[in-house]
Amino acid sequence: MNHKPSVTRFGWLAAVLVATALLGGCVIGPTRSSSTTTRTPQNPLIEQASALAGNPANAGQIDALLAQLDDATLAEQAAMLPEGHPLYPYAGRALLRRGLPLPRPFDRVAWQFDASARPPAAADGYRPPVRLAVLLPLSGDLSAAAAPVRDGLLAGYYGESRQRPDVQFYDTHGTPGGAIAAYDRAAAEGNDFVVGPLGRDEVGALFSRGNLTVPVLALNRASDLPPAGNASFSLSPEDEGVAAAGLLLERGARNVLVIAGPDDSQRRAVDALRNHLAEHGATVTGIASAGVADFSPYAQAEGGIDAVFLAVRGNVARELMPRLALAGLAGLPRVATSHLLSGTGKPEEDRVLDGIAFPGETWTSGGYVAGLPPEATVAERLPTARGGAARLFAFGYDAWLLTAYLDKLAQSADASITGATGVLRIDGSGNVQRTPAWSTFSAGVAVPLANAGRY
């Protein structure tokens, strides 16, 4: 089933609406317009980490070892690692998380992407696949989360006037055998690239196969690194925790009180924040639940409190603010996860959140994204781009960009693209690294926060 793009400025909005209604397993057709050194690192921690680096299952242990190094030692030891050394991707990520430069671009030895079957790249690096399969749970409990991802991807697809691939959607919930069976079907039907699946366990099961016959851009992280030639993209809570820690450090925080909700994603963000702070000699003085009635004991921690980190929803944060004020903590720097936007939207109620910084997406923060109209414009036509779904819409849009520009990112180790969720790069292991945009509340309304997160 082929659909031609509209020639009007925002005509792709109508195309997305039509395509959403007609999906049902149909195919969206294309349109066309015109030498290594053997030097051994001397630091004992580096030697231990090097011994573990050959097995992706050791990633957590490796990160813990590198976290014990100060900035200067980590930078020096990373520079000593020869090209192709399996530890360099870990050391490079650790440097970036600390806001430090890489001694050289990420190696492309262990991780390579083969785009030889695709048409030649355009001058800007645009090089999409020929037949694209998208694996999403289009029915069932997760369909509400999948719909904005789908529509964001279609927005990017229809917004492109150059040659595009055939696109076929596979419902991972409606396919007997789930995402793995959907992937096998997509491979058997001749697709040359796969976006998805969306579930973390599904991605883990797919990556555990090792070599995949058709390369994948997974839409979540797994405990294993992507197999060579495959990539992983996620709005991960770990990335938010690291980004929040960087902003707190930039603001001089050394003793941070954490208030967290019970969700797994919130706990993961807290763990990442705590580890990143520890790398820089800062401390999480306590982790309190949102239900604590009196924060005074936390405020009296040895060394005092100089910042607060909130891993809670916005409606929960509103209830916390009076209690923090009673404990004398209201005037401190406050940084949150993107959960802060959930449960907000009424400025008269959200004024209490003024001044809290939180990471977000370029598009949802009011930033300009080439080829994508402002969020408010899209939300008028598409329910899947409204409210909390907007960040998933932006995520889907960037999934299309990564599909089309993956070869550019893979061939140039220091290349980046500016997407709807932030600036995107691929590290030496196939994980997409995202630099988020920052926002804050002002008069109860979320607004961009300039010059944040530079640590």
Task: Supply database-style keywords.
455 residues, alpha/beta, Rossmann fold, six-stranded mixed sheet, four-stranded parallel sheet, 15 helices, 36% helix, globular, disordered N terminus
Summed up, what is this model?
The chain has 455 residues and is an alpha/beta fold.
Structure commentary:
It is a single chain. This protein is α/β, with parallel strands linked by helices. Among the domains are: 44-97, no CATH class; 237-367 and 437-448, Response regulator (Rossmann fold), CATH 3.40.50.2300. The protein is 36% helix and 15% strand. The strands form four sheets. The chain has a six-stranded mixed beta sheet, with helices on both faces. A four-stranded parallel beta sheet has the order 8-7-9-10, with helices on one face. Strands 11-15-16 form a three-stranded antiparallel beta sheet. Helix 9 crosses helix 10 (264-279). It starts with 11 loop residues before the first helix and ends in a 7-residue tail after the last strand. Residues 1-9 and 32-38 have low confidence and may be disordered.
The low-confidence parts are 1-9, 32-38
CATH topology of the domain at 237-367 and 437-448: Rossmann fold
Total strand count, please? Answer: 16
Looking at the structure, what is the overall shape? globular
Q: What integer value in Å does the Rg equal? A: 22 Å
Helical residue percent?
Answer: 25-40%
- At CATH level 2, the architecture of the domain at 237-367 and 437-448 is 3-Layer(aba) Sandwich
The main sheet comes to:
6 strands, mixed
- β-sheet strand percentage: 5-15%
Oligomer: single chain
Superfamily (CATH H level) name of the domain at 237-367 and 437-448: Response regulator
**Mean pLDDT, rounded to whole units?**
87
Highest CATH level, the class of the domain at 237-367 and 437-448: Alpha Beta
Strand order of the largest sheet: 1-3-2-4-5-6
Class by SSE composition: alpha/beta
- Helices, by number, come to 15
Query: Span between N and C termini?
Result: 49 Å
